[in-house]
Amino acid sequence: MVFGSDYPFATVAFIVPKNLKKNNNFSEEEFKAIDHGNFFKLFPQYNVR
Q: Which conformational region is residue 24 in: left (phi greater than 0), alpha (psi within -120 to 50 degrees), or beta?
């Protein structure tokens, strides 16, 4: 699972990750994977961290 949005066109895009974290549906590790980790696994060429 990866998180994606239409930011900056969707003005409420910032609310989704905030609510995912607030509801404790995912562990911190799972949240990080959804937020950016899984994307970098799929597209390692964009991981410039």
A: left
Task: Check if the beta carbon of residue 37 is closer than 8 Å to that of residue 1.
Answer: no
Report yes or no on whether pTM surpasses 0.70: no
First to last CA, the chain: 21
Listed residue (40, 5, 39, 42) closest to 20, CA to CA: 5
Residue with tokens 């066109």: 9
Q: For 35-47, how does the pLDDT look when each residue is reduced to its tens digit (9 = 90+)? A: 788 889 999 999 8
Record the tokens describing residue 1, joined without a space: 């699972």
